Amino acid sequence: MMLKKLALSIITTGAFVIGSGAQAATYHFGNLLSGGGPAAVHLADLDINDLGGGHWSFFLHNINLSAFGSGAFVGAMAVDGLTPSSVTVVPGGGVSTVSKNPGGGPGGSFDFRYDFGRGSDKLKTGETVSWDAFGLGSSHLPINGELALHVQGTSFSPNSAWYVSPVPEPETYAMLLIGLGLLGFSARRRK
């Protein structure tokens, strides 16, 4: 009976974690995918929220390009996934435009990219940018590795690099679910 309750707690907790993860996610960019630059560096965070009806919001923040030199900027984010029908920038960020363009990204495995700014309008250290994308339906949030940030104007050779969010090991998810299941089991047992 006790094992049955533990199993039920783990399943319920797992469903809760998976269900709640379908609405929002945070990505931490810093693993070198291609180009010149440090192999591992935390350079930016991205929050994505599914607002419903195909409307998604994006917030790129905690941008730190100090490891790349004073001329470095984030020029684009490549996406391996569904292309939005339209994009609008939220005023007040580090760049005045965010546009979608076909292709781009390292290795040709990305479907499109969001370009940040134009000309001298560049996304640099300490700045943020928010944008909304429409027409994405209720598709799943990208998994790690389906998004890549393009850092340009670096002091490395070549002078640009693509960075992805690290992919957690399956053991990390298993430990998380077991830990949450045990917490649920002990809370239920106390009742």
Secondary structure layout plus pairing:
Blueprint: H1 2-21, E1 24-35, E2 40-52, E3 55-61, E4 73-79, E5 86-90, E6 98-102, E7 112-116, E8 129-134, E9 147-152, E10 160-164, H2 170-190
Antiparallel strand pairs: 1-2, 1-10, 2-3, 3-8, 4-7, 4-9, 5-8, 6-7, 9-10
Pfam family, one: PEP-CTERM
Domain Ice-binding protein C-terminal: 166-190
Protein name: PEP-CTERM protein-sorting domain-containing protein
C-alpha termini separation: 16 Å
Helical proportion? 10-25%
Total domain modules: 1
Q: Give the overall shape, derived from the CA principal axes.
A: globular
Q: Count up the helices.
A: 2
Evaluate the radius of gyration: 19 Å
Strand order, sheet with most strands? 5-8-3-2-1-10-9-4-7-6
Mean pLDDT across residues = 83
pLDDT below 50 for ≥5 consecutive residues: which ranges?
A: 6-10, 12-22, 169-173
**Proportion of residues in extended strands:** 35-45%
Instruction: Tell me the total number of β-strands.
Output: 10
The structure class reads: alpha+beta
* Topology order in helix (H) and strand (E) letters: HEEEEEEEEEEH
Question: How does the major sheet shape up?
Answer: 10 strands, antiparallel
Pfam families: PEP-CTERM (PF07589)
InterPro entries: Ice-binding_C (IPR013424)
Keywords: Signal
Organism: Nitrosomonas oligotropha
What does the model show?
The protein contains two helices and ten strands; from the N terminus they run αββββββββββα. With 191 residues, the protein is an alpha+beta fold. It has one domain. Strands 5-8-3-2-1-10-9-4-7-6 form a ten-stranded antiparallel beta sheet, with no helix packed on it. The longest helix is centred in the C-terminal third of the chain and has 21 residues. The chain is globular and about 60 Å long.
